[in-house]
């Protein structure tokens, strides 16, 4: 079932390893078949080395296992909330990458200080509010997704396809699992640059909105002209 989606999601998970965004069994990537209403996700606690497409777990949008002998990622419920909340996304990635997680632990959004950031994120990468104890104690993973979804309510989650969960780490998404993994790699890169920028100049100014929009919109949207058709 969903052999091609399994392969794509496995490749997204392995990309996180290749790019140094995960250690041991940290992190997870998933992808969704909107036509089938089914999600493929990394199994919980399984090392990336030797992982095969058939090891991925297939669930429905309510978290019921449809296919797979292993338990799905413990973050499955977070992924499912995001798929239900944002109809346009096709993949979700969660890591504990060093710099992005540092910003999350500091409870600070990653400011848009330059055009590299603006090429991918139309503004600062936000940090969620801290979760309440009762949200952590019951349905923690689902409530993590709800906190993210509420943060983006009324906005366009595809213009800033990433968030920092306060005290936890980053979640990223995209049109596919591959794009979500790509965004996670870029997020870590701009998180590192922002860290060094504010270290060198604590009062570093954010990029002017006109400059930000120029760089974002030349790569995204109907009038984009970056790259080849």
Which bin fits the share of residues in helices? 25-40%
Walk across the major sheet and give the strand order. Answer: 4-3-2-1-5-7-6
Q: Given the C-alpha coordinates, what overall shape results?
A: globular
Mean pLDDT: 96
Low-confidence stretches: none
What is the terminal separation in angstroms? Answer: 32 Å
Oligomer: single chain
List keywords for this structure.
7-stranded antiparallel beta sheet, 229 residues, alpha+beta, 8 helices
Could you give a quick summary of the protein structure above?
The chain is of the alpha+beta class and 229 residues long. It is built from eight helices and seven strands, in the order αββββαβααααββαα. Strand 6 and strand 7 form a beta hairpin.
């Amino acid at each position: 079932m969903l052999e091609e989606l399994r392969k794509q999601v496995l490749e997204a998970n392995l990309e996180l390893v290749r790019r140094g965004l995960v250690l041991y069994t940290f992190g997870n990537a998933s992808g969704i078949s909107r036509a089938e209403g089914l999600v493929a996700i990394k199994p919980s606690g399984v090392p990336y080395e030797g992982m095969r497409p058939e090891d991925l777990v297939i669930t429905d949008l309510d978290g019921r296992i449809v296919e797979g002998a292993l338990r799905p990622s413990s973050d499955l419920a977070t992924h499912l909330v995001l798929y239900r909340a944002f109809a346009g996304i096709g993949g979700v990635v969660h890591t504990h990458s060093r710099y992005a997680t540092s910003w999350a632990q500091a409870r600070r959004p990653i400011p848009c200080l330059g055009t590299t950031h603006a090429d991918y994120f139309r503004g600062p990468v936000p940090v969620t509010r801290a979760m309440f104890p009762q949200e952590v104690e019951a349905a923690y993973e689902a409530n993590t997704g709800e906190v993210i979804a509420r943060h983006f309510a009324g906005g366009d989650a595809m213009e800033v396809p990433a968030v920092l969960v306060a005290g936890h780490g980053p979640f990223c998404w995209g049109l596919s699992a591959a794009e979500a993994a790509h965004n996670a790699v870029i997020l870590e890169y701009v998180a590192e640059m922002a860290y060094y920028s504010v270290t060198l100049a604590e009062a570093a100014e954010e990029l002017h909105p006109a400059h930000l929009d120029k760089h974002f919109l030349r790569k995204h949207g109907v009038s984009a002209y970056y790259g080849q058709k």
